[in-house]
Structures are given as structure tokens and as C-alpha cells.
Write a structure and sequence with these properties.
The complex is a heterodimer of chains A (about 550) and B (about 400). Chain A is built from 16 helices and 16 strands. By secondary structure, chain A is an alpha/beta fold. Chain A is globular, with a radius of gyration of 28 Å. In chain A, about 50% of the residues are buried. In chain B, the strands form three sheets. In chain B, strands 1, 2, 3, 4, 5, 16, 17 and 18 form an eight-stranded mixed beta sheet that branches. Classes of the chains: A alpha/beta (about 550), B alpha/beta (about 400).
Chain lengths: ~550, ~400
């Protein structure tokens, strides 16, 4: 389920990077020696070593030698940092419907050090935070690295990892509520398609309009043969520049850039966003010098249905009498018979939905009942969505349909209680994961809303006890989890060139007696069991006064 | 506790010879051996090579089994005592929450048990052979807990196997606007009055206006130290108070729900009072789940509760695994779900341990019982194999 392609050059760079380069660049080199390496993709390297070069993983394997700091890890295990693909850690995004400009990353508190430490202490280095919604669009879910106290750009891996949608179905939902909810969900996508059509129509109309203007100007120029007229017509495209500039202060949407590393689909747009609201203007003004040639570069950038962080709005067309002056009558004359098309209002939510329809943005929906899951399968097929279902207690009952539709299932790490419930989770079963795996459905586990990212490794161990093979269980919290989140080129495996998110365990991560000794994120040591104050120690020997 | 299944042959005929013969005959009929590569020893460690000889449902020897005895032999398995969940509402959810009287020492949790509950079988298949029904936290003195078996093959089977310790609570849930006590100091005063009435052998404790609290034999037993008490203590202050009362009277106490009691773990250990921690789930925070290790290091005996049926059937092992991940030693954790609970229930050496004289309630796991990757292969109750996991033979 690779949704997003990202920087590809890093691999090569790091491969060639070698210790020398890292040393030259001031990057630290650390060698972790003689451990059992669980790579994360199903392979195991016995008595292997891992070199950390700066923020990346250097050579991995047996017989790796190097300078710098050496950590003797005999008898220990190295794994990639675990990834909690569904977490509420250190964030409270609420359940409100929001426009898709809202990213869950904004709800993450990098200063919630206790929560972050508790997760690191269990080997979790990366979490996905959903933009949960009780109904409709919840916003964009984000991937966050657990770098406590770091800057936004450091800890936010991907601000727009997935689009969170909610079904308006609570525990007491009736059949009619269901009908309404699915009508509403389909309407969202239908409206998005309509929006795309509107944008395309606008684009066509605008092109036509510009052609007409140009033709008219050429005609007039031919008639009069005077330069001023040509100049005027040549200015037509340029007219957008002052207008859009003047529009900026009036109505900018103060969105922030969606985190570093935009997806391909975002690349251009994000550049614009990074450049602030002036990027489009800069583009236009760059075209101005060549304004002598009226044919070149004159139409405004077509407002392709590009997802956008929305500062960048295509130029508005609105009557601007101030611009009139002496030329006004002439302009009026033009506008009389050639009408400029009205630009459609930009809608970030619809643009996110369009990215989803194009398969460029994963859609995630919480659903429990098998019937609801089947309805979502239908919608995913109808609109060509890449879909993952969260919660999904009833998914194992419709495993074949999910496999055929390539839909991923994200189970909560807490197992269902024995107590029977008549709520939506009534189908919950402890053997759900094994059934889904056997059917070929990709499964993942996440801590959902229960206490953040703790004990993910024990949850994976528990899956093994319930019939999932150990390799699949480990992959589901490492390499496969990274793929689901579109960060597999960054993290999720102990492999050369990836960012150095590594966990050193005293034993196998699934053994409860194992402890996390050290945790690295991007090569930085963020947890060390021997240095951090040990939790669980009594503060004093019980000499408190009493009575 | 004498729960060994009665000899089923025709002893009733009654002559001396017949009886003597019956012993031999039933020995031949009801004797079996279980072999496994490893077992959980009395100190919680995993010991190599288990060969148990079981007669009439009781472990009679550990070591070599005679050659002519039928043997259940298991490869790649660890034999564990049947697990004991000390804090369960299995079969009686919502039925243990009586709040009208603050002191109801005569109440029996056993009366709320339901042998037809289908969850029993699930718990059994997860390796839990005994569980404890304990009243909720709304009475100062809530009556005796019930020790129950998860294996109930028929209506005649012994389901509630033992009456356990007295249950007490200092939780704020005890306080009520409608009756005594209404405050913490009132609660302690009332408890002290009741205990001293019981210790003096008074039949009743008069309270204004015109009400009395009956001083029943279980309360007398508790006040004189003949009956263990399990006390809910939300705070360290509650522990201190109870330790004070234990000194004034002769109370034998176990502390439960002790999220903050870790602050005085040393004193608890010094007083020799066991502690019940948990249940822990996968989202337990390090401080809460770390308490198990803190009590252990302070020297207290630690039992781990599973909280069935509010967790999955393997919630007891999960609690133990989380306790270990957060600092408890694996050996203590294995004891915490077997022999320490038995001790708290006054059944030490009879259940929860693989030792001569203990009832053969046994579970075969595919590995260490604490490792969540391990599965249950087979379960024995009273020496009879009552569950065999599908796919295993």
C-alpha cells in the first residue's frame, strides 16, 4: 500500500556516506556491536552490528567495524523503532468535524514528556495521530516522531498522512442513522467530484476567455497600429499581479505549512505555501519582464485540482473600478461582450477528498460492525479510495471482502474483554487478528485512544499467542506500519540509509522480561535506561511518619 | 481444604479388607503421571524436567514416575499451577455491589455466583482454574469472598470451593449521605468500634439513632486474627491507618487497590502484609504498573489480579506480563498469579503450587506462562484433563 513517494536520493547519499563523510560533516558515529538484529522485514541477523552515522543508519551486518563510540550489545536485541499507527499519545484532537486544513499534528504536545518517555521506554519512536471525527471530515491525521521538546519541523514527519473520516454512528445508532450516515459520506465524495468538474470548467472557460482577449487585442492592435494599445493588452495578464497582491492582506487563511517532506502531489503547492502568500505573485511578476510578448506566460496559473494548503488562492476576478481611470471605458467595452469566468471558491476539504479519490491520500475511518465495514468497502470501490479501517472489531467476519478490496485493518491494542457487549463492538474476538492474517488482510495494531503508545511490543506478543506468526506480528509494528504511513523510506527497518530510529532491548522485544535499554531517533539518543531516573523505585524505605 | 475428588469405587461396602483393597484398586485406577520438559517450581522459577505423579487428583510425587502408570507426555511445554484470579466478578458482574449497610460481615459473595455462566469455560481454557469473587468497595466490612472453580462439568460439581478472607474497604465509595459513615474519620471510628465489640465478644454494636450492627462470627474471627482480611486502600494514608488497626487488634491483612500505597511499601513489607496489584492492561502507565516491582523490592509478597471478566480471558497473564515489563521479576510474577494468591486465600500448599500434597490443577503452556506468545495446550483440574487445545495432541 505505497501511497506516497518521497525523497529517494537519501538512500544513495547515505550508502556512499560512510564514516568519513559523516565525520567530516561533524556527524557522530556510533557502533552497536554483536546484537541480534531483528531487521523488521522478517529477517534476523545474529551477532550483527549496526553503525549509526549522524542521523542515518550506516552499514549493518556481521563484521562491521568502525571508529567512534562503541556499544557492546552482546545478548541484546536491536529493532527498528516501533510505530504506533493509531495513537492518542500526548494529543487531544477532540472529535469535531473540521475542514481538512486541520492536521492532527497541531494537537500533539511535544512537551508532554512523561507520556513521550513512557512510549520510548517501550520502544515506540513514531506515532500516527488521527484527526478523529464523530461525523464527516475530521481533518488530516499526522505522523509524529517522539522527539520531546523538539521543533515542529523536527517532530512532525508527515502532517497529512491520511484523511480521517467519521461515520455518524454512536452505540445507539439506528438503521436510519446508518442510512443517513452513508448518504452523507457518499455525498462528500460526490461533491468533491462536482468540485473537480467546476474547477475544470473554470479552467476551460478561463482559457477561452484569455484567447478571446488576446484575439481582440491583436485585432485592435492591427486596426490602430499604435503601440499603446499593444502595451495595454499586454498588461492584461499582469493586471492579476497587483490585484492578487492587494487581495492578500484582506483574506489570507493563516494555515501553516503541512510539515516537511511534502508528498509528490504536494510538492509544488507546498513550495508555494512555504514561500508564503507571495509565491504566486512572484511567479506572475517573473513573467512581467517578458510582457513585451503578449503571448507568453500570460494566463494565470491554472487552478488545477491540486491539494492545497490554502494560502495560495488563484487570482480573483472582481470588478475593480479603482483600476479604471482613463482606460476604463475601453475595459468596459471589452467586458461587455467577453465575460470573464467567475473563479470557484477554493475548498480545502474537497481538495483533500479529491486527493483521496486519486488514491494519493489514505482514507481512515473508524468502524466496528461488519455491516458498516462492508458499506465502507463499497464506498472505497466506488470512489477508488485507499482505505484503512480503524477499530474494526467485526472485520474478521468480512475478511475475504477486505482482502479483495485491498483494505487495511487497524486493530486496537487492547483486547476485547470477556464481557459481552450489545454495542457496536459485539463481534469483537481475541482471534480476530489471526483470522484476518490467514485471510490475507493487512493488519496493524494501534493504541487508539487508550493511553497512548505504551506496551506496543507486548500487544504484538499477544497477537502471536493468539495465532499470528511472529514475523507478521513484528512487521505490523515496524516495516509494514511504516508502509501504511508512507514513511518506509525513512524508518521501520534496520537498514542502511534509513533514519536511525533504533531500539536496543535487553532481550527479545516480545519477552516481557526484556527491557528497553536505549532508544535512538534520527541518531539521537532519546532514552537510556541507565541514565533516566528509574520509575518503579520507591522514593524512600517507608520511614514516613504516620498518625 | 480437602477437595480431592472422592474415590469413585465401591468403598461403601465397608469391610476393612474391602477398604484396604479399594485403596490399592483406586490407586491403580486414579493414578496417572504428567511429563513435560519444564515446570514452574514453588519459588516461581522454571525448572527442567517435570514428572508428576498424581493420585486421586493430588500431586503425590515429583520426580520419577513408576513405569506402569499411564503418562500424559508433552513436548515443548511448561507445566504451571492452575492460575488464580484474586479479583474477579466472573459470573457475578454487578451482583457484588451492595451498599445499604456499612458493615455486613455475614454476607457471602458465594451467594452471588452463577455456575451456568459461559465465561467460566473461557477462563478455564485460558489457564485460570480458580477465581475469587469479592464484594465491591462500598462497605466498610463487606463479608467473605468466595473461592470458585472455573471447571463446572455438571450441576452437582463443587463450584464454590472455599470461603475466603473477609473483604474490607476504606475507599471513598464506602461513604454515603444516607447512612454511617459519612466521612473518613467516621469510617475509621465505626470500624474500630465494631472490631472492639467483636474482640470483646459483644453480640451487637449500638449506634444512634436506635440502630444496631450485629457482631457476627466472621467479624469476630477477623477481629481476633483467625480470618484474613483483604482491604481496599486507595491511598498510602489508608494503609497507615489499617496497619495501626492491625496493631491495636490482631488483624491479618492483605492490601488491594494500592495505587499510592507504594509510597510506604517498606512498612507494608515490615508488617508482613501481602499486596494485591493490578489488573494491568496494555495501556497501564509505568507508575501504576511499576508498583508491582516496588512492592517486590521492598520485600512484600505480591499477588497480581486479572480482573476477569472485564479483561480478555488471558487478562491475568497479561497483568503479570505488564508487571514484569515494568520492573517485577519474572519469578515473583509467576508466583503472583499462583502461589501468593493461594496464600492470601489461606490455601497455601493446596492450590497454586506444584508440590506434594497440592491439588493437581495444572496448565500446560507452550512456553513461559508470562510470555504472551505462549498458548495454553492443556488444562487439568483435580488431575483430570478438562481442556485440550485444538491442534495439540
Amino acid at each position: 500500500m505505497t501511497l506516497i513517494n518521497r525523497r529517494q536520493s537519501v538512500l544513495a547519499t547515505a550508502l556512499l556516506g560512510c564514516a568519513a563523510a559523516a565525520a567530516q560533516m561533524g556527524g557522530r558515529a556510533t557502533l552497536i556491536k554483536d546484537a541480534t538484529i531483528l531487521v523488521g522485514d522478517g529477517t534476523t541477523i545474529e551477532s550483527g552490528s549496526v553503525m549509526i552515522l549522524g542521523d542515518r543508519i550506516g552499514p549493518v551486518g556481521t563484521g562491521v567495524e568502525g571508529r567512534g563510540q562503541t556499544i557492546d550489545a552482546r545478548g541484546m536485541f536491536i529493532t527498528p523503532g516501533f510505530i504506533d499507527v493509531w495513537s492518542g499519545l500526548a494529543s487531544d484532537a477532540g472529535m469535531n468535524a473540521r475542514p481538512a486544513i486541520a492536521t492532527a499534528a497541531d494537537s500533539f504536545d511535544p512537551f508532554a514528556k512523561n507520556d513521550i518517555d513512557a512510549a520510548l521506554q517501550q520502544g515506540v519512536t513514531t506515532v500516527y495521530i488521527p484527526a478523529r471525527a464523530a461525523n464527516g471530515v475530521g481533518g488530516l491525521g499526522s505522523v509524529v516522531r517522539l522527539l520531546a521538546g523538539a521543533k515542529y519541523d523536527e517532530y512532525v514527519e508527515t502532517a497529512d498522512a491520511a484523511l480521517s473520516l467519521g461515520l455518524a454512528l454512536d452505540a445507539r445508532a439506528t438503521a436510519l442513522d446508518r442510512v443517513r450516515s452513508y448518504v452523507a459520506l457518499r455525498q462528500l465524495f460526490a461533491d468533491a467530484r462536482e468540485y473537480r468538474k467546476t474547477l475544470e470548467d473554470y479552467e476551460d472557460d478561463l482559457k477561452e476567455y484569455n484567447e478571446k482577449i488576446k484575439k481582440r487585442a491583436d485585432e485592435e492592435a492591427g486596426k490602430s497600429g499604435t503601440r499603446p494599445a499593444t502595451e495595454k493588452s499586454a498588461e492584461k495578464p499582469g493586471e492579476k499581479t497587483p490585484e492578487s497582491r492587494s487581495a492578500e492582506p484582506r483574506g489570507p487563511r493563516g494555515g501553516r505549512p503541512p510539515g516537511r517532506r511534502p508528498t509528490d502531489a504536494w510538492a509544488i503547492d507546498n513550495g508555494a505555501a512555504a514561500g508564503g502568500d507571495f509565491a504566486p505573485s512572484a511567479e506572475s511578476s517573473a513573467a512581467e519582464p517578458s510582457g513585451d510578448d503578449p503571448g507568453a506566460d500570460d494566463p494565470p496559473r491554472p487552478p488545477r485540482p491540486r491539494p492545497g494548503r490554502g494560502n495560495r488562492r488563484p487570482p480573483q476576478s472582481r470588478p475593480n473600478p479603482a483600476e479604471g481611470g482613463p482606460e476604463a471605458p475601453q475595459k468596459e467595452a471589452l467586458k461587455d461582450d467577453i465575460k470573464k469566468p467567475a473563479e470557484p471558491r477554493k475548498d480545502v476539504t474537497k481538495e483533500a477528498l479529491l486527493r483521496a479519490i486519486d488514491g494519493k491520500l489514505l482514507v481512515r475511518v473508524e468502524a466496528e460492525r461488519p455491516e458498516d465495514i462492508l458499506n465502507l468497502v463499497d464506498i472505497a470501490e466506488e470512489y477508488n479510495l485507499a482505505l484503512a479501517i480503524e477499530g474494526a472489531s467485526g472485520a474478521y467476519l468480512v475478511a475475504d471482502q477486505l482482502r479483495r478490496a485491498h483494505i487495511a485493518v487497524i486493530l486496537p491494542l487492547e483486547s476485547p474483554a470477556m464481557m459481552w457487549s450489545d454495542g457496536p463492538r459485539r463481534s469483537a474476538s481475541t482471534s480476530a487478528a489471526a483470522t484476518l492474517v490467514k485471510a490475507g488482510v493487512p493488519i496493524y495494531i494501534g493504541s487508539a485512544t487508550s493511553g497512548g503508545a505504551r506496551n506496543l511490543s507486548l500487544a504484538a506478543a499477544e497477537m502471536v499467542g493468539r495465532g499470528v506468526d511472529e514475523t507478521t506480528a513484528l512487521k505490523s509494528v515496524t516495516s509494514e506500519a511504516a508502509k501504511l504511513l508512507g514513511i518506509e523510506r525513512e524508518t521501520g527497518r534496520v537498514a542502511t540509509g534509513l533514519e536511525a530510529d533504533l531500539v536496543l532491548w535487553s532481550g527479545h522485544p516480545f519477552d516481557p522480561a526484556s527491557r528497553v535499554e536505549r532508544v535512538f531517533i534520527k541518531g539521537r539518543e532519546v532514552y537510556n535506561a541507565n541514565k533516566s531516573s528509574r520509575r518503579g523505585e520507591p522514593k524512600s524505605g517507608g520511614e514516613e511518619d504516620r498518625k | 481444604m480437602n477437595r480431592a475428588p472422592r474415590v469413585r469405587t465401591l468403598i461403601g461396602l465397608g469391610s476393612l479388607v474391602a477398604t484396604a483393597l479399594a485403596c490399592v484398586a483406586t490407586a491403580a485406577a486414579d493414578i496417572r503421571a504428567i511429563r513435560a520438559p519444564a515446570y514452574v517450581g514453588p519459588d516461581g522459577r522454571i525448572i527442567r524436567d517435570a514428572a508428576l505423579l498424581i493420585r486421586d487428583g493430588v500431586i503425590v510425587n515429583i520426580g520419577e514416575a513408576p513405569a506402569d502408570v499411564p503418562v500424559d507426555s508433552y513436548d515443548r511445554a511448561v507445566l504451571s499451577p492452575g492460575l488464580i484470579d484474586l479479583m474477579s466478578s466472573l459470573t457475578a458482574v454487578g451482583q457484588l455491589d451492595e451498599s445499604v449497610e456499612a458493615i455486613q460481615a455475614q454476607a457471602r459473595a458465594a451467594d452471588s455466583a452463577d455456575r451456568f455462566d459461559r465465561h467460566l469455560r473461557k477462563a478455564l481454557e485460558a489457564g485460570v482454574t480458580s477465581f475469587v469473587l469479592a464484594p465491591d468497595d462500598r462497605n466498610l466490612v463487606a463479608g467473605r469472598v468466595a473461592v470458585c472453580s472455573t471447571y463446572v462439568p455438571n450441576r452437582a460439581a463443587k463450584f464454590v470451593t472455599d470461603a475466603g478472607p473477609m473483604k474490607l474497604s476504606l475507599s471513598p465509595a464506602v461513604l454515603s449521605a444516607d447512612r454511617e459513615p459519612t466521612s473518613r474519620s467516621g469510617a475509621i471510628a465505626l470500624l474500630r468500634a465494631a472490631l472492639s465489640a467483636a474482640a470483646k465478644g459483644q453480640p451487637a454494636l449500638g449506634r444512634s439513632p436506635g440502630t444496631t450492627i450485629a457482631i457476627t462470627p466472621p467479624l469476630i474471627d477477623f477481629a481476633k486474627g483467625n480470618l484474613n482480611g483483604i482491604v481496599t486502600v486507595p491511598t498510602a494514608a489508608d494503609v497507615a491507618t489499617m496497619l495501626g488497626l492491625a496493631g491495636e487488634f490482631k488483624l491479618k491483612l492483605t492490601f488491594i487497590h494500592n495505587n499510592d500505597a507504594r509510597e510506604i511499601a517498606g512498612e507494608i513489607a515490615k508488617a508482613g502484609a501481602p499486596v494485591i496489584v493490578g489488573p494491568y492492561d496494555l495501556s497501564a502507565d509505568p507508575r501504576t504498573a511499576g508498583a508491582a516491582g516496588v512492592f517486590e523490592k521492598a520485600g512484600a509478597k505480591v499477588a497480581i489480579a486479572g480482573g476477569l471478566p472485564w479483561q480478555a480471558a488471558d487478562g491475568l497473564r497479561l497483568s503479570a506480563a505488564v508487571a514484569v515489563r515494568n520492573g517485577m521479576s519474572p519469578d515473583s510474577a509467576r508466583k503472583g498469579i499462583t502461589s501468593v494468591p493461594a496464600e492470601i486465600l489461606g490455601l497455601s500448599g493446596k492450590i497454586g503450587v506444584i508440590a506434594k500434597g497440592a491439588r493437581a490443577d495444572l496448565v500446560l503452556f507452550s512456553g513461559d506462562p508470562l510470555d504472551l506468545r505462549s498458548r495454553v495446550i492443556a488444562v487439568y483440574v483435580g488431575g483430570v484433563r478438562v481442556y485440550w487445545a485444538p491442534g495439540d495432541e
